[in-house]
Each structure stands twice: as structure tokens, then as C-alpha cells.
Protein 1
Amino acid sequence: MNIIKHSLAVLGLIAAPAFAASQVSISIDASKPGPVINKNVYGQFAEHLGTGVYNGLWVGTKSDIPNTRGWRNDVVGALKALHVPLVRWPGGCFADTYHWRDGVGPQDKRPSNVNGGSVEEINAVGTHEFFDLIDMLGADAYINGNVGTGSVQEMADWVEYMTSDGGSPLARLRARNGHEKPFKVAYFGIGNELWGCGGNLKPDYYANLYSNYEAFLRAPEKSRPKMIASGGSGFDTAWTDVLSKELKGRTVGISVHQYTIAGATWDTKGKDLGFKEGEWISTLANTLKMDQLIKDHAAVLDKHDPEKKIGLMIDEWGTWYDDAGARSALFQQNSLRDALVAALNFHIFHDHAERVPMTTIAQMVNVLQAMILTDKEKMILTPTYYTFQMYVPFQDARSLPLAIKDNTSYTLGATTIPGVSASAALARDGKVYLALVNTDPRNAVDVAVDVAGAKVNAAAGKVLTSAAMDAHNTFQNPQVIKPAAISARAAGGKLSIKVPAKAVMVVALEK
Ligand code: AHR
């Protein structure tokens, strides 16, 4: 009985004595749908790094782990439930030293080489295998080219190999390698982190390089990939300034990377698990800086591109914790805190839907803030996975104006952040969805919801929460944290939803 009472209290369905719930008012205007939240905002990044591709996604056809043409059935099946719209591949810094020809042709004839200085790359996964994965997922491809150690010719050849529809020697080579029809490349990134692992360049120099590369990336008009320029690091808007001025009309977006750490510096990023409340609030406070980052870049873009033709592509984001002797490079556990990080960022991306048409979280499997973790034949779904799943209705939905009144605040020491974060949208299924985050790890909150332009009598959906801030699934116990169903009915013409402490909630509002 006590266990049942505890679970209900955690889910906010009954009042728990320790939780003095405050009342927050949210009003949504369903009669004024705003910009579309591009489904590509829910994109993902899969890099040849650690076990991000090999073992995590790809095991090869001879593996005992059930697979389809080498791709793990369990992982691909789980990813399908997320409706992954877009996958960025093969890096990251890996892309800066990747030579695509090593990854085509008969697998047993492909060379093994060393990428990133020390890691063996067997090249079993190359262009054809990647597109096989993309097909299985029903996603679009975002290929990142090599400026760091490549050449204009090599990149031009790759684009021609993937996109030309016959009549060219590279199209014939592609056909001989098993794919007669061109591949569909939605986006093509010209380089990665040129300010760092891509070559320590300056923005003016890269702007010239970009022009040179882009001019020779030829593809049939109807299947030409949208070209993306590689921008600055985090809050550095100097690159955005130069690139948006110099590359107008020749790029659809400028990529920016922004990671969330718990600590104050990159040498003290903080732990993935077993952290104190101080690291809970610092992580959430740091991740909320994404809003200011987008505003800073958007202000620069507005100067050179008021028509909003250049998107801010946040193609690496998520948490990055200290390496705790990880089982493979950049492998980290993923807890309830990561779920809140994902949800808070989604709300920020929704708010900037017109300037942010695409993001890819780092990364899909076994690396940084992953959806899925694997250990040999075992697989677990992370709290971040469940958050992506709960937010599927927001893909290609129209954002709705939303105002929060009497919001709570959550304070620890010198840090204060808003208690409730919310986002609403009119989804493609015709329903209004409301997403809520309660950042306070101790206190539940009552939210009164008012929808102008629609009478709402009930809400139903899912909530993700747990007793521990670092609640996480393990290979021994994979069901520690997962979403639970939640519903609420209006009383006296008022819809009130109780959001438990430290929770992510997504509900459909019903008449
Ligand atoms: O996502 C991990 C690495 O972080 C990527 O390879 C690089 O682009 C970034 O610095």
C-alpha cells in the first residue's frame, strides 16, 4: 500500500505531505498558431567515436547479436519509435580526417586505418551502410565533409558519388558498389569545428575556403544537398558575423556547437551520477544559457539576413561529463537530470523555431548524452530517449503563444532558475500538446491551464520523474526510470495539472 501511495505521490496524482504545491498559471492561445517547429530540430548525431557506431549500432553480419545487414535490430527498432528525422554522420572531429573512398567497395577489401591519432577505423561502415541505416530509420541524411585533411576534389567526388544520376564515372562506381539510384543527401556540412579540430582556422580564411569548396560541389539541381557552413564555438558570434555576410545565398545554415557541463570549467565538468543538488541546479542553469546563445547569434544573423534564409544549426548539443574511466570514449551514464536538459532545450528551440530549423543532439548511442546505451548484446533506453519519445508530437507542429504567470523559482545558494518551463504546439494530429518541466527537485507544482480559442476539459499524456535526481537505467536493471501515464480533468471549468518535483511532462489537451 505504501509503495502505491509513494508512486502516486511521485507522479503528482495525490498530494504528498512534504510537497506544498504552488499555483502557476499558463495561458495558451490556440487561435494563433505560430511558426512550424521543424521536425529536424529532433535530429541526432552518430559519430565514429568510442562505441557510437561500432558495437552500439553496427555489429556486422556475422555477429550473434541479431542484426539486419550488420545493424543491430534492437537499437534500430528502438530508434524507430523516436521518428528520428535526421542523422548527422560521420563526425564531428572524425569527419575532419575521414576519407570516403576508404568506406566504399567490398567490405573485406576496405583498408583499416587510424582516425583521430589513435583509434583504429575498420571502415566496415561507409557511405552505403550509412544510407541503409537511414532507410531503415526513415530519416534524412546530413553528411559532414572533410575540410581538415581533405581536398576540394575529394569532397566534390563524394557529393557526385552520392547524388549524380548516371552518366558519370562516379555514378557508375556507385552502381557497381550496389546502389544504382542516387542517395538522397538532405544536408551537407562543409567541414567541422574549423576553429578547433578542423584546422584552427580564422573565420575570414574559412569563408574563402567554403566558397571554394561549395563552388565545386556539383549535384543535379533537384537533388542538390543543402549546404551548411561550420561556424564558431558556443557564444563566439564572430564566425556567424563573417559567414552570414560573406556566404549569403550559398548556405542554408551556420552550424554552432554548445555543450552543457555541470562544473565551472572543462577540466571540472562534473560527474554523470552521484552528484549533489549543487550540480543539479548548475547543469540546468548552464543548459538554459542556450536561449541567450541563440539570441546572440540571431541578433547577428538578423543584421545580414533579415529574411531568415540562414538557419542556426545547433548540430552538437547535450551534456558532457567527466570521463569516469568509461567503457569506451565519451561513454557516460544518462539520468533524470539529462531528461530535463533535453526538455529545456526543446522548449528553447521551439521558441526560436524561425531561426533554428535543425539540431542534432550529441549523440545517438553510447556517446555523451545518448538515447541508448549498449553493452555487448544488452541495450538500455535512457531518460533522454524517453524525453525524445514524449516530444514526438512536436515534430512539424505549429508553436502556440504561451504565457506563464506567477511562475515559481528554484533557488540553491546563489543560483536561481525558473521553476516551470513550458511549451505548447498544435500538432499535425490536430491536438494541442503542452510540455512542462519542473526544475525543482523537492517541490511539486500545480499548473492551471487556460486555452484561449478552445475549451479544454482534460489532459492526458506521460510524465517522467523519479525519487532520485540521478535515477538511471542500468544493464542489470533497465526499468528503473521510464515514463508513466498521467491524466487530469477540469473541475469547475478549470484544468489544473500537478507536475511532480524534477519532472518532464507532455500532455495532449482534450475537449
Ligand atoms: O561530439 C564529440 C566531439 O565534440 C565532436 O567530434 C566534435 O565536433 C566536438 O568537439
Protein 2
Amino acid sequence: MPIGHRQSVVPHPHFVSLEGGEGAGKTTVLNALRATLRERGFEVVSTREPGGTPLAEMIRNLLLDPSHEPPAPETELLLMFAARAQHVRETIRPALERGAWVISDRFTDSSYAYQGGGRGLDPEFIADLERRVVGLRPGLTLLLDIDVEQGRERTRGRDLHPDRIESERDEFFQRVRATYRARAAADPQRFRVIDASQPAQAVADEAVAQLRAWLERRP
Ligand code: Z5A
């Protein structure tokens, strides 16, 4: 089959993604999930998007750098998928094929939320790229859902120099959040929505409980 011809997106049970807006607390949750899987003796690869390989991290720097002219929405989307293609081929697929678990801080749902919902790009265009370039989706996606203002308040002290996407206005992030919630509602088999306004420990505990339930269903 020619490269890029792939027409399906296949879920993998050992692939977990974390999604959510700014300040949702993905870092704490990722650490808790990784510890839970390691306690059970699994190899775990934790990674992030955009990024996860040296080349994809370079694309990340390009994407988040506020010093050049703003990319066109299509440029932003295609760079996200360029990084993802590399990430899937170099990091995620090899890990899954050798039997490891993969936890990714963001994956393709971020493109639907930010470039689709936020920038207004056609979700069918994104779905086509997802089929042709990625061909893989997580078995389990935890959406850390939080009010935009509350999430931004958490990162305000940290972000003295906000990156290009962090500098967007609240309305952009409202559209991102609405898109995430709509995607979760449309695919309850894969998504678990966690109230990320709770204290960090409560959010992590709920995420670990969801992972344990997933492990029981899919050893
Ligand atoms: N992006 C895209 O547009 N399209 C795509 O396809 C992909 C990504 C893959 C990535 O940058 C940017 O790229 C992102 C989406 C876009 N843009 N934005 N905005 P990133 O990875 O650097 O950005 P991020 O994922 O939003 O990182 P973040 O703001 O750091 O969010 P987080 O990882 O969920 O938060 P955190 O670091 O775990 O916590 C943030 C702060 O809140 C920290 O000080 C914590 O101590 C605090 N915190 C966390 N949880 C709590 C609770 N529960 N209570 C109180 N305080 C808390």
C-alpha cells in the first residue's frame, strides 16, 4: 500500500492520551498514571505533543515561537501533523509493538480542538489527515475539563513569556473547550471526562481510578 493511502484509524488499548485546556493539570496526572502502570510491571513510555522526538520537538519550537509572523491556520495544522507523523513512526508505534504502554500529553484530539474548534478549520480535513498520516488513536482518553478562566489563572504566574498559542484570547479557548466536550460526548467508549477544577490530588486519584477500571476491562 502506498504511504499516505491508509483509510482507517485504529484504537490501541495500551495507548492513553491526556487532553484539556491550559492549566488543566495534565503533568500531575501523567506522573500518577505512569506510576500506576509501572507498579504493575509494565514498561511505560510517556511523551507529549507537539514533540516526542528530536525533530518533532524542533517543530514544536517553531509552532510555539511568537517571534515570527503568525502561521496561517493550515500551516499550523500541517506542522502539528508533521510533528505527529514523526512521533507516531519513531516513538509511539515502536513502543506499542514491543508491548509497552504509551501515555501521551495531547494527541490528535488537540488538533480537532485547537485547529478545528479554535481556528475554524474543517474537521473533515483534520479527519483525512488523521486517517492518512496517523492511522492510530488511543484506546483511552482522559479529558481534564476546566473552566477557561480558572485554568488560565493557574498558569498566569508561571507564564511570564506566554507562547504563541497561550497568547490567544479567552474566546479561542472557549471554542477549544466546547469542541473537546462535544468530542467526548460523541465517543463515550474512549473518553472519560474528569472535573479538573478539583484539587490536584483529587484529579490524579480520579484519573488513576479510570485507568484501573480500563486495565480490568483490557488486561
Ligand atoms: N496544540 C495544538 O494547538 N494542536 C495540537 O494538535 C497539539 C497541541 C498537539 C502545547 O503547549 C500547545 O500546543 C497547547 C495546545 C497546542 N497550547 N496551549 N495553550 P503545552 O504542552 O506547553 O501547553 P499545555 O498542554 O496547555 O500546558 P499547560 O498549560 O502547562 O497545561 P497542563 O500541562 O495541563 O498543566 P500543568 O503544567 O500540569 O499545570 C499548570 C499549573 O497549574 C501548574 O502550576 C500546576 O501546579 C497547577 N495545577 C495543576 N493542577 C492543579 C489543580 N488541580 N489545582 C491547582 N493548581 C493546579
Protein 3
Amino acid sequence: MKINLSNIKKAKKLLDKSECVAIPTETVYGLAGNAYSDQACKKIYKLKKRPKNNPLIVHYENIKKLKKDCNFNKNFQKIYKKFCPGPITFILDLKKESKISKIVTNKKNSVAVRFPKHAVARNLLKRLKYPLAAPSANLSSKLSAVSSKDVLEDFGNKIKYILEGGKSSIGVESTIIDLRNKPKILRLGGLQISNIKKILNKKIYLKNYPSKISAPGQLKLHYSPGIPIRLNVKKVKDNEAYLLIKKNKKVKKNYFFLSKNGDLKEAAKNLYSMLRMIKKNKYRSIAVKKIPNKGMGAVINDRLIRASKFK
Ligand code: TXA
Ligand code: MG
């Protein structure tokens, strides 16, 4: 995508005044504000209707800028060197002298940080004197946005500006890893755990992984298109939308294919926009055919399991 500098300058101008701007990233769009400004961060929570105790991710251009705010260890450096910028978020210790707003961290001494790869986001970050707090640009508990159109659909003119960046190339949120003690995955996402394992060469713990949660009530609704979802369905009802990983021989009006040939990366990229489309086509519920639980398939299943908590 060609970079439009005047758009980026317009976004900067608003951000400098502690306004919120939606920005593209390679995972999903973010609702961004100056992470050093209480005023900007308060606006983010209000716009998203996000509970105040759910902290925000802070986006940096590079490790040099991060150094002012966070402490980090060898494990961080290894992953950073290999995969950043990219779809991975780190939980790190805050430095005492950090300028990050207490509203971002909910007064904790840890913070989530990420280095987005999207060229528009990077160009913007390069011009700013502060990092950007940016949760996914959607209403709390709903589907993330993978295009400027999705953001507009959720927020209308409540957001001052949406910086155009085309469709997000990964289409699901970043992987979150807590590196303060033993490496622990807090959210499956764009960077696969097997890749991280290779680099760290040690056991990686999984926390909050849906298939390991015994009591279903433990999972809160998230990533929801706003209609019920049934998983691992072999026989779809006539009035349901049927979501399948790949095109099959039978093609009916209510069949929606996430990819042509079962490519799981392609399927992840299409997941949220397809769920939005099904909802727009006025289906009352969605049935999903079993999706292989490997690679990006595990991420798709993670999101669908959480979305299926909608009753
Ligand atoms: O791909 C992404 O990560 C996107 C793009 C815009 O960067 N952002 C995103 O942000 O998904 P959000 O806010 O929707 O999800 C961030 C998650 C939240 O579930 C939050 O609870 C968690 O990160 N988080 C933030 N700070 C944390 C901390 N200090 N410790 C543990 N979890 C934290
Ligand atoms: Mg989110």
C-alpha cells in the first residue's frame, strides 16, 4: 500500500492534542491515543466502553524508545530480534521513571507493549514523541476491526479520524506473552507459539487457553458478532449460516468459506470480516464446521469458543 503522508500528518496533529485516532496495524485496527496523556487514555476507555480495570497495549516504534519506559530481559531481546516488528505483545515491568499514564496500566507495575509492522503505523510512530496506547478499535466484547470500514461501522463519527491502511494482513490480534518470569502465553494470536519455542528453546506455559479451561463460566464473552455461534457442527439448520474452513463441493446460499483450499492463515485473515458479513446478511445464528486445532486454526478456534458464549 502506498503511504499517504498528509493523512499521517493529520493523525499526528490530532494525537498531539490528546485526541483519539483509529490506526491500521497488521493484526487489527487500533484505537490510538498518546500513552503519556491521561486525557487521551480516558477518551479511549470511554469510546470503547471498556471496563477501567482492563489495561491497554502500548505501541512503540522500536526497542530504543521502549527503554525509557520498561525493563526487559534476555528472553525479550531474543524474541524482539527475531519477530519484531510483528504480531507479538510482551508483558514487561514498568520503570519507575516511566511516563506512561497510570490509566493505561490500571496502576499496575507491568505494561503490555507491541511493535506493529504495518508501514502506516510505523511511519506515524516514527514522527511522534510518545508511544501510542491502542486497544483493538471495536466496542468492548465485540469483534475486532480489520478495515477502516469496520471501525466506522462501530464508532461512526465519534472518532475524530480513521487513518486508512487497507485490510489488516493477519486479521487476528497479536499473541500476548508474559516474560517477567517463566514465559507464559496469555493470548493466542498472530505469532505462533511453535516459532517462539524455537527461539527461546524452553518450555512455554499457556494461561487462559480455552480448551484447558474446565468450567465454561470462566470464559467471558469476547470477539462476538452479536449472534449465537455453535461449534463443531456437522449438520447445519436451514436458517443458520454455515462457516467452513474451505470451499466444498456443495455450495449453498448460507455457506461461507474462510479460505479456498483450507489455508489457515487465509482463514484467520477472513474470520472477522466474514462474521461481520453474516451478521449483516441478517442470519440469526452461525454454525461452524470443525476447524483443525493447529497453527492459526488454534487461534481461530480460540476466538470462536469465546464468541460462542453469546446467548
Ligand atoms: O494485535 C493487537 O494486539 C491489537 C492491535 C491494535 O495492536 N490490540 C489489541 O488490544 O488486541 P486489546 O486491548 O484489544 O487487547 C489487549 C489485551 C487485553 O485483553 C488486556 O487485558 C491485555 O492485553 N493486557 C494489557 N495490559 C496487560 C498487562 N499489564 N498484563 C496482562 N494483560 C494485559
Ligand atoms: Mg480487543
Protein 4
Amino acid sequence: MTAIVIKTNQEIKYLRESNRIVALLLRYLAGIVRPGVTTAYLDHQAERFIHKHGAVPGFKGYMGYPATVCISINDEVVHGIPSPKRVIKEGDIVSIDAGVILKGFYGDAAITVPVGGVSPEARKLLQVTEESLYKGIEAAVVGNRVGDIGYAVQQWVEKHGFSVVRDYTGHGIGRKLHEPPQVPNYGERGKGALLRPGMTIAIEPMVNAGGFEVKTRNDGWTVVTADHSLSAHFEHTIAIMEDRTEILSRP
Ligand code: MF3
Ligand code: CO
């Protein structure tokens, strides 16, 4: 395993730019998600948006991934592949995960949006998952450890009766989409790598309404909950600095 890459202020500036585009993209996509649109249409619009902003898609071709964004609906957890056959409908919860590269640096973030009126359980799941991301970010400060992040996320999620996915984690990010350290959404206080100024990481809780077990569909990508319960995903890329932690993927 290679060492955690500490970024200079200039490198963090580049990451701020790439992640700003991701933030704007997610806001744009959230605004055009509605019943009747296909996930392929959203993917196409995402690619146009990214190019218009001078960046390139970060996921396309990554480990052979075939699209610009990942769109995962209801019991789909992450890595859903956009398709012209997949039509969004009222009541769905739609997770959109987006990555770009600008000037050699990755941006990466995700949101889950409700389509029209969704069930009370779905609403609670979205709220708790997004809150758990912010709990994780609050724990991501100089002097804490990676385990403190996972602990904060897991506590919040389980306190509300949901479960955190174990098989996928957050990650360091920079010139590569996935750098060390891995950032699990579960953990123990005081365990794992020490958080230091200049670390840039993506924190991305994937939270299931039922059990934490997941499986991958035959397409080789789409991860679904084993019990077909609903799942939500929120992600931010952050920079840990001497005196504060900055969320880079916020418009
Ligand atoms: N946010 C996800 C991650 O960081 C997106 C990766 S999708 C892939 O792992 F297609 F690029 F693999
Ligand atoms: Co990520």
C-alpha cells in the first residue's frame, strides 16, 4: 500500500475547482430529475454539462465503467448504469454519483433526491443519510483518525434504525479517484490513519433501510441491497486543513 498523498495549497485549489463543477452538476441534475425522464437522458445531460465547464467525465472508462454518472434507484445502492430503458417515476429515490477531472484533479460527490412525494420511510432515510455525512465531516479534523469518521457516521445511522454498507467505502482523492486511505462508514474511535493537514478525502455513506448486506447484479456494476430495502448515498470531497475542514464539493 502506498502512502497518503498530502496536497499543497495549489493542489487543493485545483481540487476546489474540479469539485465545484461536480457540485454545480449535481444541483443541475437534481433540477431536471422528474417522472418520465430516463437515466440515460440524465447521463447525456451530465456529459454535456461537464464538457461545457471545461472538464472531462471522471468515471467513464474507470475500471471499464461505461457512463458519465452512476444513477442508483430505490434498492440500488451505488454504481447503477444509466440506460434508455430506465424511466424515473414518482416516489423513487434517485442517487446520483458524479466525478470529473479538471487540470489533472478529480472531483467526486453524490446526492440522493426524492422524486415527487416519497414514503415517510424514504424521506427519513434521505435525511439521516445526509446528516450522517455531515457527522462524518465534523469528525474529519486534524488530530482525529479515520476511525473517528466511520464511528460518527455509523452511530448516527444506527441510532435511527438504519444500517451502513460495509462493502464500499470513501477514499482519499487527488490525481487519482481512489487514493489511500480507505474511509469506511463504520469504525472505532481513535483507530486508523491520523488525519493531517493537506489530506483530501471523499466521505460517502451508503445507508440501507434494512440490513447492510449488498449484492452485485449480473451487469457486473449495479450494487443492490440483499433484502431489497431502500438505500441512499451522499458524498462530499473535503480538504482537511490546519484550522478547519473545507467541503470542496459545495457550490
Ligand atoms: N463515488 C464512487 C467512488 O468513489 C464512484 C465510482 S464509480 C466508477 O467509488 F465507475 F468510477 F467506478
Ligand atoms: Co467516491
